[in-house]
């Protein structure tokens, strides 16, 4: 019996994902007894035949590729507390049809959607599976009334970042729970939201801040679980070329922040805070790698988020925004030599409610860099417009994009 109406996923997918399971799926051989009662309570089970008959697969989480079960599911039993989304395409492709169900059981051939019988190629199970099934919540989606505005025709070097396809709008990268990396563009942009690729859950840090190899295209740095730092050169269309290994040993760094030109040599640099609480500047070499690092100072264990937000105080130098463990937000004005002047308080408290902060440059189109904050309880991104004042302060926030709690944005 079908328990809720189907939805058709919206959006465009420009790459086909071939990924593994997000959570363990256990195949159970056909047994003498059959029917829905074979499915353990608290589990999702799918069956090769209608009415819970035939072979059974116990599913523990989302599956982007059903493997040997591709186009074999005829019925299901959802005895979890979560909804399940069934998709006709692998990778939960939003170009294809999908339908969601809540707790209960049913056979596709006996439902108003017989087209799903032996035609399902991926599924999602979890507290937000309903959203993944019904709309583009797998990645950040800009709101119509608060989308990025066109930037001034010419921005100073300290503000020319965050635009992945050179169309004059700030863009977003987001990684979802399946390890898919997506690019989101403004509605008026010539670019389209697109899947960059899969497997990005192997990365423990993701950071970007404009051009790092001198080709005027937005680049990306990613650290993998083994501590290797990789450079992903941007293609200028929201995707990346072949990655280049920067080096190993980066697991000693608690946080990384691509922050633009901190040293005043015209090349973009990287900041890294190590586990001992020391902050380091890694001067860029203009080719995607770095020269010998320089010590900024100690005591940075009190900071749990570093953001290369751009020139927040209009002095034509790249600055750093940092959140401390008490939830306060600080501006560290760059001195143009790879270090910082005396910090200034720009947020009195409550910033620990955000899972992450990000700098995308000028989002509002006023020529000043802004700050983005992920509010997971609201499934939204907040935009804090920069004032450009000497204090580096921020204006009142507004919601400008939707984003589920398990999606990371940068």
Describe the structure.
- The chain folds into 2 domains: 35-135, Gamma-B Crystallin, domain 1; 141-409, Tachylectin 2 (Tachylectin-2, Chain A, 5 Propeller), CATH 2.115.10.10.
- It is elongated.
- Residues 1-25 have low confidence and may be disordered.
- The protein has one helix at residues 129-134; strands at residues 7-8, 25-28, 44-47, 56-59, 75-78, 84-87, 97-101, 104-107, 122-125, 141-142, 172-175, 181-184, 194-197, 203-207, 220-224, 229-232, 244-247, 253-260, 269-274, 279-282, 294-297, 303-310, 319-324, 329-332, 344-347, 356-358, 371-375, 380-384, 398-402, 408-409.
- The strands form 7 sheets. A 5-stranded antiparallel β-sheet has the order 2-4-3-5-8, with no helix packed on it. A 5-stranded antiparallel β-sheet has the order 10-29-28-27-26, with no helix packed on it. The chain has a 4-stranded antiparallel β-sheet with strand order 1-7-6-9.
- It has 410 residues and is mainly β.
